User: Which sequence fits this backbone?
């Protein structure tokens, strides 16, 4: 069946059109609409045969963006389908599923209500996801839709890992707890690692490191996420492109007092002006950090060191939480591409049985093992594929409902 996956952000929509069958999984086309509602909005589209096109236009909202996507999928010159009805289902990425959604769901009216209730938990992300769903419902009447949640894979966290040291009533009243994100990515790469090792995931202790602009790690013990670095929001844990990651809440209170910041300003400070960009003053982009660092910029080096140190620290913490680690996976734009970072993270971890082979680490390409022959732990680089998980989940959920 042909399944469209949509990942709607506040000003962008990424899409892929798949053919998914038991014996075939193929991407027919993929692309993104960027700068929705702004000047210079653009759609970038790529077909399976390498044909690429960019279309500029006035794309005022998510509905208009989806119209553009459907039009290009149907176009004579760049399209892959002849009529809209060929799209049999749509899979939507939804960032926050709260405690309600522990797995993917077919989107029905009562589900929309529950989704709207989750907005409070993710005011920066969920509204865009919902806009995409509503626009699709309007334009693609009778096409079944499925929501796939970033939080769902982490629903297996035990209470002692997801609770904060706050009055318990705040958890009960407002759902203040760790949820974790990037779940589809952690799920995908952990399963690929199991396939590469040739052992069931249920017999493995895996640490997955999804390192992109947003970054998180997960401890996947016998196939279940038992801890993860992101929290109630994607702000906690690792250092990120523009986010602080872990910070003493007392330090935040101190800054608010000294700088007399409003709620909005402190939100922007922690989410947009911190992390790599905040520490380096140079860039939120790891490639540029590495270039600057190699050109002798000390603050870029510092930002890089803080980033790597946190990954290493959590790796140790998760190994302790699982009573060991047998597989480590790097994914995300940084995890997949930065041999410098992988080498730095693994430095001195021989005591955990982690040894990287320098030559293998520098080879570029798809899925690969980068551990040395004597390493007790498998270390893999695995390109993530969240869209494929969303498409597979969409097919599975619809088959079961
Ligand atoms: P997002 O979280 O937005 O999906 P990605 O997973 O695409 O982000 O990761 C983007 C990050 O990957 C950026 O910091 C970028 O600099 C980094 N990156 C991409 N290629 C390289 C590379 N060759 N070396 C180091 N970092 C890289």
Assistant:
């Amino acid at each position: 069946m042909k399944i469209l996956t949509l990942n709607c952000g506040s000003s962008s929509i990424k899409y892929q059109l798949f053919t998914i069958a038991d014996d075939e999984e193929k991407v027919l086309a993929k692309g993104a609409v960027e700068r929705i509602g702004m000047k210079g909005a653009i759609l970038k589209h790529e077909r399976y045969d390498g044909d690429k096109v960019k279309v500029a236009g006035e794309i005022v909202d998510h509905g208009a963006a989806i119209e553009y996507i459907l039009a290009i999928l149907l176009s004579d010159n760049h399209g892959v389908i002849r009529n809209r009805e060929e799209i049999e289902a749509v899979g939507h990425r939804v960032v926050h599923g709260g405690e309600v959604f522990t797995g993917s769901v077919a989107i029905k009216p009562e589900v929309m209500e529950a989704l709207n209730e989750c907005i409070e938990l993710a005011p920066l992300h969920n509204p865009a996801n919902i806009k995409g769903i509503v626009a699709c419902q309007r334009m693609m009447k009778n096409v079944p839709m499925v929501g796939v949640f970033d939080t769902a894979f982490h629903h297996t966290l035990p209470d002692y890992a997801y609770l904060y040291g706050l009055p318990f009533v705040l958890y009960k009243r407002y759902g203040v707890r760790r949820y974790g994100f990037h779940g589809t990515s952690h799920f995908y790469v952990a399963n690929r690692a199991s396939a590469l090792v040739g052992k069931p995931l249920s017999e493995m202790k895996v640490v997955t490191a999804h390192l992109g602009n947003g970054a998180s790690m997960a401890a996947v013990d016998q196939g279940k996420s038992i801890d993860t670095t992101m929290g109630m929001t994607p702000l906690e844990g690792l250092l990120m492109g523009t986010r602080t990651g872990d910070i003493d809440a007392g330090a935040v209170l101190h800054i608010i007092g000294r700088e007399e910041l409003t709620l909005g300003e402190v939100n922007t400070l922690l989410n947009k002006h911190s992390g790599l960009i905040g520490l380096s003053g140079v860039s939120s982009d790891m490639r540029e950090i590495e270039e600057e660092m190699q050109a002798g910029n000390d603050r870029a080096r510092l930002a890089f060191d803080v980033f790597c140190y946190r990954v290493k620290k959590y790796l140790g913490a998760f190994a302790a939480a699982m009573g060991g680690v047998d597989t480590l996976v790097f994914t995300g734009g940084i995890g997949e591409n930065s041999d410098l970072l992988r080498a730095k993270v693994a430095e001195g971890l021989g005591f955990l049985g982690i040894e990287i082979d320098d030559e293998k680490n520098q080879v570029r390409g798809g899925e690969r093992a980068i551990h040395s022959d004597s390493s007790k732990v498998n270390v893999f680089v695995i390109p993530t594929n969240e869209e494929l998980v969303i498409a597979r989940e969409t097919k599975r959920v619809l088959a079961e409902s």
